[in-house]
Write a structure and sequence with these properties.
Layout (H helix, E strand, L loop, with lengths): L2 H54 L13 E7 L4 E5 L4 E5 L3 H15 L14 H12 L21 E11 L2 E9 L4 E11 L2 E11 L2 H50 L15 H64 L7 H24 L9 E5 H11 L1 H7 L2 E6 L2 E6 H17 L6 E6 L3 E7 L28 H11 L3 E7 L2 E7 L6 E3 L2
Parallel strand pairs: 9-11
Antiparallel strand pairs: 1-2, 1-7, 2-3, 4-5, 5-6, 6-7, 8-10, 10-15, 11-12, 12-14, 13-14
Protein name: histidine kinase
GO molecular function, one term: kinase activity
Catalytic activity: ATP + protein L-histidine = ADP + protein N-phospho-L-histidine
């Protein structure tokens, strides 16, 4: 199962559990919470009715959810008059019956002794029932044009009290709450009693209390729509969520596959949006790709360098072994002739020096081969005075210069260079040696040193054009006698590459110019 399906399944399971909990909440908890909310709302409403009537003395600004069953009775602290108001009318009633006044006095008493309301005898203080009996026996008997007669019936009281509670709202206000049932419906009756300016304010408020059994069928009827809507929302949100999570991961996977199969070694970075963990992973992979690419390029560069060195060493060893054959064969021929005293070779004094020359030539080739083993790791840099190196090399070739009667012209800006002494001496010495070897007798050599380059010009020399492109190859030399064994410029190029310098040799008017460019100018310091 791929990640997208897993994410969808896990999200669907979690969403299904949430829907189950939501349905359970609506079926079992929501009805009771709604009923409790309505009870609190009704209590708050009777409190508001009582406070507004106390402030205004009328129902002008009073609203009620059941205005026909809402009324307020104002009972002055003395007298036989009471005032009744509701949303529809206001009535003043004068009471002339002593029994009714007796109940009014009880109301006055308990309104000022609220702490004793919990001890009220409900049968004795059943105001509605007792007043009804008084009305039944005495009201409308003698003084009206109409005669009312309350007929008895065998109906029993169908209302049964289920609970009652007294709420002390303020110091001068209490609310008596009673809940009754007729078997089918639940009713909540609220009576708020307050004392205000020596008056007794009594507000009555009756409402039908919602029944849990009435709410649940409505919820059950709504369940199909709720479930369908919830499932649709869950399906859409799950798909969007899974795509939101999976798509960046798929992008990472596809990019990783692309980088694995990429043959041109070009790094194409991913564009990640956001700052979440997946975006951080993408940025980390980008850094990893860049680092790996840098390492690969560095490794490739080193491999190319090693390959080039191996190829160069292979060519060099083959050429050097071939080059050694000539002096070895010549030396053997001379020695064999002298041993056998054949012809002119009997004169050992004349030919032993020639053998020595051949042996010295072989030693020179061998020394050059051994010196080429220098590498980057063997380089030991120090501050070197280039002018002293040039003078040292010229002193080394002083005999040749005098024999050929050369004119040496020097224009040196003395510099200190942080470089390897042995390698820089080899480079300069080989360049000067080449200039001396290839300059005709009584020739002119000019040496110039600046911060950027060392230039050596030997006038009267010339390099064949077909030979010029190959002058840095090993054992490339002109065919003239006594012109070396063709390793000088090869060694110069090899050591210059190790020190990160550039060498250029070219024909100019009346001579040959060899230039060594100092590319690492930060290593140089002018000597005052």
């Amino acid at each position: 199962m791929n990640l997208s399906k897993k994410t969808f399944v896990y999200s669907a399971i979690i969403s299904g559990a949430m829907v189950t909990l939501m349905i359970a909440y609506f079926v079992f908890m929501f009805p009771s919470l709604y009923v409790d909310y309505m009870r609190k709302s009704n209590l708050k409403e009777i409190k508001s009715i009582q406070e507004n009537y106390i402030n205004d003395g009328n129902y002008r600004n009073i609203s009620s959810s059941n205005p026909t069953a809402t009324a307020t009775i104002k009972i002055p602290v003395k007298g036989n008059e009471i005032f009744i108001s509701n949303k529809f009318t206001s009535i003043k009633i004068t009471i002339n019956d002593n029994e009714i006044l007796k109940y009014i006095e009880k109301v006055r008493y308990y309104s000022t002794h609220k702490e004793e309301m919990g001890n009220i005898d409900k049968e004795e203080f059943n105001f509605t029932s007792n007043i009804g009996n008084i009305f039944k026996n005495k009201l409308f008997k003698d003084n009206l044009p109409l005669t009312f007669e309350f007929l008895t019936n065998d109906y029993k009281n169908i209302y049964k009290e289920t609970s009652s509670k007294i709420h002390v709202v303020q110091e001068n206000t209490v609310i008596y709450e009673t809940n009754v049932s007729d078997g089918s419906n639940q009713y909540a009756n609220y009576i708020a009693i307050s004392t205000h300016n020596n008056d007794i304010i009594v507000s009555m408020f009756s409402v039908i209390v919602p029944n849990i059994g009435e709410i649940r069928p409505i919820i059950f009827q709504s369940l199909p729509m709720i479930i369908a809507t919830a499932l649709l929302l869950i399906l859409i949100s799950t798909i969007l969520f899974s795509r939101k999570i999976v798509l960046p991961i798929e992008k990472l996977v596809n990019h990783a596959v692309f980088m694995k199969d990429n043959t041109n070694r070009e790094v194409e970075l991913m564009k990640m949006e956001g700052k979440d963990e997946i975006a951080v992973l993408g940025e980390t992979l980008n850094d990893l790709y860049l680092k790996l690419n840098e390492n690969f390029k560095e490794l490739e560069k080193k491999n190319n360098y090693l390959s080039e060195q191996n190829k160069r060493q292979e060519v060099f060893l083959r050429a050097s072994s071939h080059q050694l054959k000539t002096p070895v064969a010549a030396a053997l021929l001379l020695v064999e002739g002298m041993i056998n005293e054949i012809g002119k070779y009997k004169d050992t004094k004349e030919y032993l020096p020639k053998v020595k020359i051949q042996l010295q030539s072989m030693r020179k080739i061998i020394d050059d081969i051994l010196n080429l083993n220098n590498s980057m790791e063997a380089i030991k840099k120090e501050n070197i005075n280039i002018g002293e190196i040039i003078d040292e090399s010229l002193l080394y070739h002083e005999v040749q210069v005098k024999l050929k009667e050369f004119t040496i012209e020097k224009d040196l800006n003395f510099l200190n260079i942080n470089t390897d002494r042995k390698l820089i001496f080899k480079i300069i010495d080989n360049l000067i040696n080449n200039a001396i070897n290839y300059t005709p007798k009584e020739g002119h050599i000019k040496i110039t040193l600046t911060e950027k380059a060392l230039t050596i010009i030997n006038y009267g020399a010339f390099i064949d054009e077909e030979l010029l492109p190959h002058i840095f190859d090993p054992f490339v030399s002109s065919n003239s006698e006594n012109r070396g064994h063709g390793l000088g410029l090869y060694i110069v190029a090899y050591y210059a590459n190790l020190l990160n310098y550039e060498i250029e040799v070219r024909n100019i008017k009346d001579g040959v110019e060899a230039i060594m460019f100092f590319t690492n100018t930060k290593d140089f310091k002018r000597i005052k």
